[in-house]
Each structure stands twice: as C-alpha cells, then as structure tokens.
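Extended Data, record Putative ABC transporter substrate-binding protein
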Amino acid sequence: MRRSLKLAAVVLSGSLGMASLAACGAKSTDNNSASAGAGGSSFKVGMAYDIGGRGDQSFNDSAARGLDQAKSELGATINEAEAKSGESEGDKEQRLKSLVTSGFNPIIAVGFVYQDAVNKVAAENPNVKFAIIDSSSADQPKNVTSLTFSEEQGSYLAGVAAANKSKSKHVGFIGGVQSELIKKFEAGYTAGAKSVDSNIQVEVTYLTTPPDFTGFADPGKGKQAAQGQLDKGADVIYSAAGSSGTGAIEAVASNQAGDKWAIGVDSDQAKQPALEKYKARILTSMVKNVDKAVFTYIKSAKDNSVQGGVQNFDLKAGGVSLATTGGNIDDIKAKIDAATQQITSGQTTIPTAP
C-alpha cells in the first residue's frame, strides 16, 4: 500500500505551514531556480492527489507530469499532498487549507471527490485560485476552474479497437467506482464496440460503489474482476479504475492462452515502468491528457489569465486520444481514423451514460 505520509524538506512560509502540511501527508519540492531566492520561487503551486497518488501508473501520474512540467518550465515551487483511503470530507478540506496556509496559489485538486471540499475552501479564500479535475458544480465559486475531459470520446475509440481485435466477440469493461464519471467511460466504450458489431457482448464490472472509493486503488480487486471476465470468455478488457487497472492488466497478460488484450487508461500504460513486463499484451491505452490540462491551467495562473468555470478538453482539442505504443493497433489505423473524423466533425455523437 502507498504511504499516506510523504514529507520532503522545503522552506515554507512559517513553522505552522510545515506542521500542517506534515499532518495532511504532503511533500514539497523546491525547483532551485535562479529567481527563487532564499525562500524558493515566489510562484508556488499545490496539488492534492486522489487515492493512489503519484505512482499509480494512471490518472494521478498524468496530473503529476503536468505539475513536473510547470516546475521545469515555469520555475514553480511545487507541493504534493497525498490522499488516504477511507478519509473523511474534513480530511480533504484540511489538506486544501494546509496548502492555502503555506502560501500555495494556485491549488489543483485531482479528482471529483474533492468537489465539496474545493467549493468550501475556495469560498473561504477568494484570493486563491483553485482548479478541480473531472468535476464541476453549479454553485462553484468564481475562483475555481473545472478541468474536464470528453472521456466518452476516447473510450469510444477504445471500443472500436476492442471490437476489431476481439476474436470471441466478447469484450470487457472494468470501472473502479460506479460513479457518473466512470459511466462516461463505459458508455463510450460500449457504443464504440457496438458500432463495429451490434451483437458484440460487453461484460461490465464495477469494483466499488460510493462512498467506497477504494476501487481506484486496489490492484487485487482489479485482477480478480478481470479474471472473472476472462473466465466468461472476454478476450479484450478495458479498465477505467486507476491503479486497480494494473491488476486487470496483470490478469490479462498472465493468461495462459497468451492471446488476450488489455486496454489501459489515462496514461500510456505500455510506457509505465511498473508495467514493463506486461506491455506486450496492452493493446492500447485511452490516454486522458490531464498533464496538458494541468500545465495549461498553471501557466494561465502565472500569466494572471485564469478563467473560472469549465474548461473541457475533448478529442478535437487533444484532450483524449489512443496510444499507439507497440504498434498493436497499426493494422486498424484506418478504422480508428475514420471513427475519429466522425466524432470531431460532429457526425457521431457519443453517449455519456450507459
């Protein structure tokens, strides 16, 4: 299990900030840029991770890449705060408040589970800029920007790939938590698969339901769910389940027949070091370019050009895409390209609910 407490030394604004950050499981890194001065860069960016945190080989890691780019290219001092399994709403609020107290601005919350906490803390701190990934609400304060994605569009392409590669005409979908967000992945994937073969069977399994969000951070559950789908005859399995999806990939890659495929999510999982030994059986990944959204937002914060409301990153804007690592979908490139063109032109509209 990932450590919930990570702390690296950094000069923060006062001992209270250091103490409160340590209490909420945060770590800071100083970029040591020439403009930083004795106390580090004056541009300080905070990130509060979802369950699984940096190192999940998926969603959080994609956000982390955007943060790292801001550190490298924009001279930001960064702080990363880790989530804990089974935490309360108060824990999320305290994590955000600790970043505020320590002078981090902007602050990025990774995942829809932060919506209520972001709304409350942002309302209490109108001079601090906040972003939340994968969520928006009608009562969101003006100093909050929602960074959302058209997951259903990328998942549709994953479904097209799955149906074209399936020999059994039976594919699978594993969702980490049965939420409105993950249902977008399911809806797009199913629609994409059925656009190729209306009779294809799509097996659907969710690992947990709210308020249990451990389905995003339990590879064992992911592996068990994938094995169950393999046993039922599925030969291509797509997981939208955070680090739990690594377990599903392991189950598929370890199948004795050696002819099953896994589809990764969020990051190009065939390129992730921890999944190196399984990459030969990763057909593709539905890449959600959270890093692009995060870096774009942080740059706008530094340029004082942040806009509140919702910023959506769709297929046309490069917010979602299919990975081509390994060349496993090269033979169906024309079909993927055709489906892409139909979506970006508006000819095909993808459902957002199953």
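Summary. The chain has a mean pLDDT of 89.
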